Automatic annotation (TrEMBL):
The keyword Transmembrane applies. The chain crosses the membrane at residues 20-37, 43-60, 67-87, 93-117, 124-148, 154-172, 193-214. It is a multi-pass membrane protein. InterPro entries: Bax_inhibitor_1-related (IPR006214). GO terms for cellular component: plasma membrane. It is found in: Membrane. Keywords: Membrane, Transmembrane, Transmembrane helix. PANTHER family: BAX INHIBITOR-RELATED, PROTEIN LIFEGUARD 4. It comes from the Bacteria. This is BAX inhibitor (BI)-1/YccA family protein. Belongs to the BI1 family.
Length: 217
């Protein structure tokens, strides 16, 4: 059914973005918890739970159901816990300043693309099929990288691809939400934007690490 402007203010794009921003804050709190409380030995358990929750959200969406705010905030908190060792690994590899720079770059890119998609009248729905297939390809390459050393150059190319793909997801998702959604769909919409942001951040970190790796070779 075509979207109209009949949705309540509760389901507006601004409300989705506020929920997304709160999700990022909760993720940051999760990182602090991961740093101070969670033993490294049980981080894999949190990763499994995170993946299960992503799959559950996908299944809910396919069945026409929605996730709640509790699900969203629990997911982002767990995501923050699992992000901590990743951030620390990149920090030791490229330095804390470059990690901070990567986060700032992510915020600027995400914000710019979100602003453009929200203000533009362009329809980005044509990107959906390509982005889905490309994301599956990235996941498969990520699994393969666990067993095969790609090297700095191939990692650089994959990171550029990841940046472009998740930049595309930002355009696609924000354009889908710019007319608003039903109030009960806000948590899932915010979760999609959260995943766009986090994956964009991770691929920017990977890009910087690849540049540093090439310069050291």
């Amino acid at each position: 059914m075509e979207r109209t402007m009949t949705y309540s203010h509760q389901g507006s794009l601004s409300h989705i973005l506020r929920t997304f921003a709160l999700s990022l804050l909760i993720s940051f709190v999760g990182m602090l918890v991961g740093a101070m409380i969670v033993p490294p030995s049980i981080i894999p358990l949190f990763i499994v739970v995170e993946l299960v929750m992503i799959v559950a959200a996908i299944i809910f969406r396919m069945r026409g159901k929605n996730i709640g705010y509790g699900f969203l905030y629990a997911f982002t908190a767990i995501s923050g816990v699992t992000m901590y060792p990743v951030i620390m690994a990149y920090g030791s590899m490229i330095g804390a300043n470059l990690v901070s720079g990567a986060f700032l770059a992510t915020a600027v890119i995400f914000g710019g693309l979100a602003w453009y998609a929200a203000r533009s009248e362009k329809d980005f729905s044509f990107l959906g099929g390509f982005l889905f297939a490309a994301t599956i390809g990235l996941i498969l390459m990520g699994v393969l990288s666990l067993f095969v050393n790609f090297g700095s150059t191939l990692n650089l190319l994959l990171s550029v691809g990841g940046i472009l793909i998740f930049s595309g997801w930002v355009l696609y998702d924000v354009a889908q939400y710019r007319e608003g959604v039903a109030a009960e769909e806000v948590p899932l919409a915010a979760m999609n934007l959260y995943l766009d942001f986090i994956n964009l951040f991770l691929y920017i970190l990977r890009f910087i690490a690849s540049i540093v790796g090439i310069s050291r070779d």
